[in-house]
Amino acid sequence: MIRRPPRSTRKESSAASDVYKRQVWNESLSVHKGYKRLLLYFFAKMSGWDQYINGMIMNKQLPDGTWLQSVVQEAAIVSFDGVLLAVTPGFELKTYDYDIQVDDVNKKSVKVDEKEIFLALAKEGNSKASEAGIRINNVKYMLASYNPDMKLAYLSKAKGGACIMCTKSVIVYAAYSTDLKMSNGVAQSAGTCNNAVDSVAQLLISNGA
Fold it and tell me: What is the pTM of this model?
């Protein structure tokens, strides 16, 4: 079943919905005030899950009042059955054949089901769902750590990494690359990526999602 976004994300505006939104923001203590204002802007301009993707891409307000952009390389909101609810352009969970090195000479072709890999990793911290290891959007990752209580995974890759966190009904994902610059000229980092995922996941949890 495709999960609908929390009802606070509706595009219509009314006095009742505005009261509800203010209540949600007050309860979302883990999200700083500037970030709340940013998501309020997305609530007014966008519908569905896309606002949360934009909330990860633009996740921090700078001293001059502008928003730090290009915080992450890619992001996704995924249902527990693997439906891509919202993604940045180019993100997919693919199925393909991949050659793994058996020894110094020989290779072996194995099937890679990225959806299966992603769900097993997010829900259980299982990094061995495929002989090819962890592969997301055709990129190889290593599991750095997994918190089973929070269902929170930190991943590493060449010149970057990713963060995955489960809410009550969806999975929040974002990746970063140190080769890419944020709008302030500083390279993307684990800290900004992890904060983006945590902020959106905690807001979704407070909304009941």
Answer: 0.78
